[in-house]
Amino acid sequence: MSDEHSHIHISAVGSYVSERVVTNSELASLVDTSDEWIYSHTGIRERRWAEGETTFTMAYFAVQDLLKRYSIHIDAIVCATASPDYPGFPSVASQLSERLGSRGPALDVSAGCTGFIYALEVGRSMISSGLATNALVVGSEKLSPLLDMEDRSTCVLFGDGAAALLLERSEEARWLKSYIKSEGGGASSLAIDPLRRAIMMDGRSVYTFAVSAIAETIDALLERNNLTISAIDWIVPHQANQRIIAACAKRYAIAEEKFYMNIERYANTSAASIPLALAEMERSGLLQSGQKIILVGFGAGLTYGGTVLVWK
Ligand code: UT7
Q1: What whole-number percentage of the chain has pLDDT above 90?
Q2: 186 Cβ below 6 A of ligand 1
Q3: Active site residue 113
Q4: 179-310: which CATH architecture?
């Protein structure tokens, strides 16, 4: 891999979630479910549902949080979202570009819950090809209006949130080789029904896909980068189900603690889940310079993939 592609790092992070907490018990008053079922089948205790906010406003608040800590003029903007406010234009990235007064490339990426992994690669390519001096990569989702409250097997799973990472050139190689794939044959197992505007999922088949997609991605990342699992300090997976991660950890004999999970508090926030986790880890001091981190995503498309970062 060329220096242009590997000498890029994450220089700043920011995040935003609504203050409105929806607990499992509150859901149980609306739907035939229980805290016990939801927690034991998914690891979720509560989620945020953003009221009076849009995918764009949440993205903007996450970016403001980043810029509060690290003031810089933004060049490229890439936003991963499965829940844009408008089905066409303006994209969330264009709205951010307007608000931030940036002139670099701006686009949304739609690859379901793997969207952030795809978006990172787009942002990285914009820098490595010389198209941009830096790239803001955002994951923002307002999934709560897309829930079918008659379908208890999906409406308990999702939450809203946003997070942003800034990519800049680095002196040293900070970003290793990625692995990104899709499996179009499974596209209809996880989709937004275009007429009802509601998420539909065949949970069982997506579960089976997820476990093998994570395993394949971790294997490929280790092989491509000539690493062993013991060299990895953290694995930050898309937060879809604690049991999926427990199954992967068991299969690999990896300590479950190596996987960072916050699904308990935010549920599945699709393309926002990986950056939300990274922002939280950074804030709580879990990330140390030089640590190697695998990010791994999987979801609608079906899409999956991951990357390996060396923390700044
Ligand atoms: O982010 C994109 C990727 N998404 C995923 O990776 C999600 C993957 N899938 C999953 O995480 C799991 O399949 C679910 C959490 C969605 C479902 O868990 P499960 O263990 O596969 O449950 P199931 O769908 O097989 O349902 C088992 C039982 C059923 O009852 P019967 O038919 O056995 O009587 C369901 O009706 O659980 C019932 N059930 C519920 N009961 C109480 C389903 N949802 C609920 C609920 N509360 N919310």
Answers
A1: 96
A2: no
A3: yes
A4: 3-Layer(aba) Sandwich (3.40)
